[in-house]
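cache lookup: miss for this entity combination. No prior model stored, computing from scratch. Input as submitted by user K.M.:
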Amino acid sequence: MNELVPDPVTDVVDLPSIAFIGGGNMASAIIGGLVAQDFAAADIIVANPGVGRRLHLAEKFGVRTTDSAADAVASAPVVVLAVKPDVLGSVLADIAAAGRIKGRLFISIVAGKPVKVMEKALGDEAAIVRTMPNMPVLVGSGATGLYANRNVSEDQLNTAIALMSAVGICVPLDDEAHLDTVTALSGTGPAYFFLLMEEMIKAGKQLGLDHDTARALTLQTALGAAELAVSSDENPASLRARVTSPNGTTEQAIGSLVSSGFGPLIEQAIRKAKRRVAELAGS
Ligand SMILES: NC(=O)c1ccc[n+]([C@@H]2O[C@H](COP(=O)([O-])OP(=O)(O)OC[C@H]3O[C@@H](n4cnc5c(N)ncnc54)[C@H](OP(=O)(O)O)[C@@H]3O)[C@@H](O)[C@H]2O)c1
């Protein structure tokens, strides 16, 4: 756990039993994070249509599995919705038809599906948490924004935060609209860093290094810079100032980036991503 946000109030081992609807990459990563923190695999059930995937999850983690979402939620007070967006509607309809809503907390990791869509399917009284995780959840270093509707109790909110904190940091938000910014910032963010890495590797090669050397040095530099920024009390701007000596190499490179409009370019990219979130929600 890094120092960016306080540790969750609720310990993972104290969480109630959990049903995952959808047992794909994201669900598997979260289950892995929970089990690694000693949450009992027997208290997890996964609903997934593909039998191969069910066998894989049962073997890897010791979780229970089923092909029915409605069956999975029967004895679980916490339900993690981890299906693709186009499947969410039918999954919620199945759960609603089985009358398995009351007393449960629904935590969605499904991109682009607002709380009102889930309330329409589950009813106005359903306790719903909508989250926006990002791809590094897959390696336990995710950044998740989280919004809870008015029906979510303090205990349930702590449960949701603890669950998503099993695979990184989790930041609660007081306004669902902020999730659009979170999507454009940290949801889409890994790709911005991948692009920077790609371009640095390319430049290293153009200046004479072989691919493996340029790649190894670039990736370790990204990791080292992130670790330093996360573990330091200083903000990135002052860390950058510390490695920038007057007339030195860093000053040349940073000066070139800044005069080429690097800052405004990043802001514009994030604004465009946010605008696209709104367009996709309306389509
Ligand atoms: N990947 C990311 O970086 C990321 C980041 C933020 C948010 N998300 C969100 O996370 C969600 C899951 O993404 P993912 O990458 O884990 O996708 P995924 O690997 O494709 O997993 C989705 C799983 O849902 C299962 N499924 C399909 N229909 C189902 C049904 N009716 N009932 C239960 N399970 C069903 C699929 O099973 P079969 O394969 O057997 O059909 C599959 O195992 C998506 O909504 C995505 O928007 C992902």
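stored under new cache key. The chain has a mean pLDDT of 96.
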